[in-house]
Amino acid sequence: MGKRRKPSPPSRARMAVLTTAMAAGGAVLASGTAHAEPTPNLATVKEQVDQLNEDAEQAIEKYNGFQAKQQKLQGEANQIQEKVVRGQEAMNELRTRLGAVAADQYRTNGIDPSVQLMLDSDPAAYLERASVQNQVSDSQASLLKQAQDEQRKLDQDRAEATATLAALDSVGTQLAEQKKDIQTKLSQAQEMLNKLSAEDRAKINAQQNAEKAKAEAQQAAAAAAKDRASRSADRPDMNAPVPSASGRAGAIIAFAQAQLGKPYGWGKNGPATFDCSGLTSQAYRAAGVTISRTSEEQWKDGPHVDRANLQPGDLVFFYDDLHHVGLYIGDGKMIHAPRTGKNIEVLPISVMPYKGAVRPA
Known about the structure:
This protein is α+β, with helices and mostly antiparallel strands. It has 2 domains: 42-187, no CATH class; 245-361, endopeptidase domain like (from Nostoc punctiforme) (endopeptidase fold (from Nostoc punctiforme)), CATH 3.90.1720.10. The protein is 61% helix and 7% strand. It has helices at residues 12-34, 42-108, 113-120, 130-133, 138-194, 198-233, 247-258, 276-286, 295-298, and strands at 304-305, 315-318, 324-330, 333-336, 345-348, 354-358. A 6-stranded antiparallel beta sheet has the order 1-6-2-3-4-5. A hairpin with a 2-residue loop joins strand 3 (324-330) and strand 4 (333-336). Helix 2 packs antiparallel against helix 3 (113-120), helix 2 (42-108) packs antiparallel against helix 5 and helix 7 crosses helix 8 (276-286). It is elongated. The protein starts with 11 loop residues before the first helix and ends with a strand.
């Protein structure tokens, strides 16, 4: 038998290729591992969806503010434009009267230089010419002065109308941007929910209902403890029952109760859907009281009330930026329009971060 040849050691080139291939394979595996997105758990999804809905509600109140400002500016613009029309009509009448003066002078001694200037182009400059003033009669001077004043007012009104319309256009742009922001946030929240199974969505709803029930139980326990403490201290003023919802408060709460179960609708103030400040503003309107449209402005609509002194009909506010408001109905509860996808409901005021209360005058 011939001698068995020993296998030759791998060449450096071959080793380099193998090493490179192994490194590349390892990199692919590592890359695949690094970029694999973990499936979020229900708690994470719920937290993210809640945050998106809260962000959307903040944007909705800003939208309501822009909308109220737009309506105010539109009203102002309409009034100013009406003033411009009336001013132009007055100027036309003055020009007609001056034309009659000019015709009369032409038939007698020729057109007075002042009237000729008046009929030319710019009535605002005539009385500034002393030489002209000296050549006109008192009646003509009065007519020219009236025309000058009317022209000045007309110019001011036109400038104001231009500025108001520019502001209106700017608010319209902000309104469109805010609407887009709201729709984006709500779409993101819905997309996250759509990725869940029906079972998982049911679990999230069950968690929310459990949180609500827990808050109601805590509120009831706190109220009972307060009542026991008041009785044991024998303080009649503290034992007074929650004020009954009568008179104005009764009308406010009756309106809110009639809306229970209706869906939340951002930017809406009824009659089919409401957002939080839309519900409160319409409830007060039903009682003959006008308050602001947005929760931020409603915070300024009356004196602030301590939590211990809340009465039915008071406005209750939540979060540091005041982006949510409800109607207090007594017993630590409120009626409010919660958020997109929810219906108007009764809820303990302890469920959300309480900011304060207002009792509109």
